[in-house]
Amino acid sequence: MERVLKNTKVSIALTAILNICLGITLLVYPKMTMTAICYAFGGVLIICALFHVFFYFKYKKQNSLVNFNIIIAIVTGVIGIWIVSKPSMVIYIIPVIFGFVLVIHSIVNVKQGIELKEKFYQHWWISFFMAVIHIGFASLLFINPFQAETTLMIAIGISLLYDGISSIWILTKIGKAEREIKK
């Protein structure tokens, strides 16, 4: 059980560090970063489509299940081409995805706050406060009051930066509470 907890903490810490890095990148280069992500994702989908076409033609006479590969290739290819040709449209979808991620992280923060309270940590309520802030950022991303996509990307960058920093803070407090309990 202790190993599982340690692995979970490492996973949370790595995710937090990645969120901080992506957040800083989005703050410094918001539009360029999101456009690059769209091109990369669209390119990956197009490559996947090409593999499906290859497998379709290579194995279509040997296995009837392979016929489904051409459908996957068409759908994946069309989506990939759409993403590469219209990255600005895709950029408007990304804030909603990040909003969902922030909601999930806020739920995790609430759970961690409960753990801190159970471990008698005096400032356990800060985790709940951080969860409320997460929900606030997520709401901004869902409601999308911003007109410019650059502003949206900066908001996502701030949200990710905050998410990473708050996750690391909570992890340090959980670790401190665990060490105090072991004494």
UniProtKB/TrEMBL annotation:
Gene Ontology cellular component terms for the protein in this record: plasma membrane
UniProt keyword Transmembrane helix, yes or no: yes
Pfam families: DUF308 (PF03729)
UniProt keyword annotation of NADP present: no
Keywords per UniProt: Membrane, Transmembrane, Transmembrane helix
Transmembrane domains' residue ranges: 12-30, 36-57, 64-84, 90-110, 122-146, 152-172
Domain of life: Bacteria
Entry protein name: Uncharacterized membrane protein HdeD (DUF308 family)
Organism: Lachnotalea glycerini
